[in-house]
């Protein structure tokens, strides 16, 4: 089966952009996760379209990942094709608009805005994900979020067609866009910003960077903020008040520096991470009656799941 798929893929995409049995842990911020059957890195939009259409026609499951900053991949890895858009990282400025490809870092996009003396993306200067990932989850921080400045996105839809969607068509809300359900693949995004003062923009970004670096456990691999903010509460405060900081399962630990983070302190497995997440959810629910909803995505298969090409559902 793998040989057949590989032979078809090399007709679509250059051989050097196809890896077999690639370790996903090399592509996630947590530094964990099993192997992908195929790890594909297209170099142009047509290749992305062709890979998607091939998967649809041949019923080969495919999974899109960004830079793995908000992702846990189970230890059994991912069946089928993992599609990475890391080669799409171009950022261009035109007047007060910035267009960034989906593989570009949202941090780099905010810095490009600074260089162009454009305001509106300062909040994103510490978000570690890609532009595509930021759109997918309507990423936000320090009072700002993607929906505040997004104008439109160019996507490949679930049928493999390339179309433009306006921001208002994405149903953007707290850590949500309808891309999470409709199967769109973001190729690029256009942000509408405003002219501003370079020194003032930089001062805000410097302050936010300092606040992030001083409070977040950046010295360890992690998936960033694990849980969404429950209405009326702060997830980190609930976890802290549950005396869970420092709690470990295997090599995964609730950060002693910021309770909203789970860090990989000693060669953690995905199973360690997921077990600790469930323990935190159970403890907070029992103590405060609050259900913590995950912000981090969990995909892939467990080690004991041998079903080839099973759909990679959460």
TrEMBL record:
EC number: 1.3.1.98
Pathway(s) where this gene product acts: Cell wall biogenesis; peptidoglycan biosynthesis
Keywords (A to Z) from UniProt: Cell cycle, Cell division, Cell shape, Cell wall biogenesis/degradation, Cytoplasm, FAD, Flavoprotein, NADP, Oxidoreductase, Peptidoglycan synthesis
Domain (FAD-binding PCMH-type): residue spans on this chain: 32-196
Claim: Phosphoprotein is one of the keywords in the record: no
InterPro entries membership: FAD-bd_PCMH, FAD-bd_PCMH-like_sf, FAD-bd_PCMH_sub1, FAD-bd_PCMH_sub2, MurB, MurB_C, MurB_C_sf, Oxid_FAD_bind_N
Top-rank taxon, per record: Bacteria
Signal peptide (from-to): none
Cofactor(s) annotated in UniProt: FAD
Residues annotated as the enzyme's active site: 175, 225, 295
Annotated PROSITE patterns: FAD_PCMH
Catalytic activity: UDP-N-acetyl-alpha-D-muramate + NADP(+) = UDP-N-acetyl-3-O-(1-carboxyvinyl)-alpha-D-glucosamine + NADPH + H(+)
Molecular function terms, GO-annotated: UDP-N-acetylmuramate dehydrogenase activity
Enzyme's top EC category: oxidoreductase
Keyword Disulfide bond belongs to the record: no
Cellular localisation: Cytoplasm
Family designation: Belongs to the MurB family.
Function: Cell wall formation.
Protein known as: UDP-N-acetylenolpyruvoylglucosamine reductase
Source organism of this protein record: Pallidibacillus thermolactis
């Amino acid at each position: 089966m793998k040989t057949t798929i590989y032979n078809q893929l090399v007709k679509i995409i250059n051989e050097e952009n196809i890896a077999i049995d690639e370790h996903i842990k090399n592509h996630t911020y947590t530094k964990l996760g099993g192997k992908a059957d195929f790890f594909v890195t297209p170099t142009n939009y047509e290749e992305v379209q062709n890979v998607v259409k091939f998967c649809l026609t041949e019923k080969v499951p495919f999974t899109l990942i960004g830079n793995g900053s908000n992702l846990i991949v189970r230890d059994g890895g991912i069946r089928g094709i993992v599609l990475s858009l890391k080669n799409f990282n171009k950022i261009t400025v035109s007047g007060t608009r910035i267009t960034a490809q989906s593989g570009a870092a949202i941090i780099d996009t905010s810095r490009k805005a600074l260089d162009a003396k454009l305001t509106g993306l300062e909040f994103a200067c510490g978000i570690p994900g890609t532009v595509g990932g930021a759109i997918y989850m309507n990423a936000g921080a320090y009072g700002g979020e993607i929906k505040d400045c997004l104008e439109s996105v160019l996507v490949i839809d679930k049928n493999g067609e390339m179309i433009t969607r306006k921001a208002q068509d994405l149903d953007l809300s707290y850590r949500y866009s309808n891309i999470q359900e409709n199967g769109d693949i973001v190729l690029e995004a256009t942000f509408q910003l405003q002219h501003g003062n370079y020194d003032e923009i930089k001062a805000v970004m410097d302050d936010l960077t300092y606040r992030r670096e001083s409070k977040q456990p950046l010295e360890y691999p992690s998936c960033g903020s694990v849980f969404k903010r429950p209405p009326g509460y702060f997830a980190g405060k609930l976890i802290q008040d549950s005396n869970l900081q420092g709690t470990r399962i295997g090599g995964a630990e609730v950060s002693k520096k910021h309770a909203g983070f789970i860090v990989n302190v000693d060669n953690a497995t995905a199973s360690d991470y997921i077990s600790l997440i469930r323990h935190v959810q159970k403890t907070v629910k029992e103590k405060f009656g609050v259900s913590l909803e995950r912000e981090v995505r969990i995909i892939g298969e467990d080690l004991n799941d041998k079903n080839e090409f099973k759909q990679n559902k959460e």
